[in-house]
Structure formats: C-alpha cells, structure tokens
Fold:
Amino acid sequence: MAIEIERRFLVENDSWRQGVSATSLKQGFLSTDKERVVRVRLEGDRGTLTIKGLTQNSTKKEFEYAIPAQDAWELLNSLCLKPLIEKQRFRIMYAGFLWEVDVFAGENRGLVIAEIELDRVDQPFAKPPWLGREISDDPRYFNANLGQNPYCRWGGA
Structure:
C-alpha cells in the first residue's frame, strides 16, 4: 500500500513560468465517493488508473496502475463522470523539491494550483515566492470535486 502526503496551495502570480514546459493532462473519475475516488488519467501517451482513499491531514492511501493509453481514452470518453478535468502540468524544482503547478482549462479555467509531495507530514520545505494560501484540506479544490462543482460555478472564490 502506498501513502501519499501532499500539500496544495493556490498560486498568486506567474513568476514561476520562466523556463518551464507543460504536459497536457486529461482526467476523469469513475467514482467520487467521499471515502474513495477512482481516477483515470491520460498524460501524453501514458494512461493510469488510480484509487485514492479519504484525505486526512494531507495524507491518503493511493494505489496507481499503468493502463494502455487507448483504454484510458475509452474510459474517459465513455464511463467517466463529466465534465472531465483538463489542465496543463508544469514541473518545477525549488529548494530541492519538485513542485507541480496545474493550470486548469475548460470549466475550471482560471484556477492554478501548486502541489508538493512529501515523505512525512511534518517534513519542512521552503515555500516559493509565488505560493498563495494553502488549500490542502479544502475539499472544494480536490480534483474529484472540481469535476462535480467546477471552479467557474463558484462565483468569486
């Protein structure tokens, strides 16, 4: 069993954009139950199926499996809940840690989130100057919830 320890933040400005390139991601959910989510993702020519447990204190159980890209495409288009999550992912090294910055498109356009994965809940890390407030424990920003209640419907979040 894998444990994911992740901290998530809103992004305040575009100063992180210099010299980084993006990967396009499309993802959908087969289940968005409060206790567990089942996600299908297509990143470039890589498909994955991921099962995540309930988030508690920025920690959750996570199981991820590679699947053929064509299977991911079929699942996204035929079985996943709509709307799908579309975003550009940028990977940035800062103070020895890998940050992933997601710039959302479609119904979540305008939302930009940075996340870092840690080895321990109490692991210290330097915060880049472009980080805004932490949203790790705000369920509105969970990808599964963004599919059900997209950012464009929030009205001035």
Summary: The CA atoms of residues 94 and 149 lie 31 Å apart. Residues 69-78 form the longest helix (10 residues). The first strand starts at residue 2 and ends at 11. The mean pLDDT is 94.
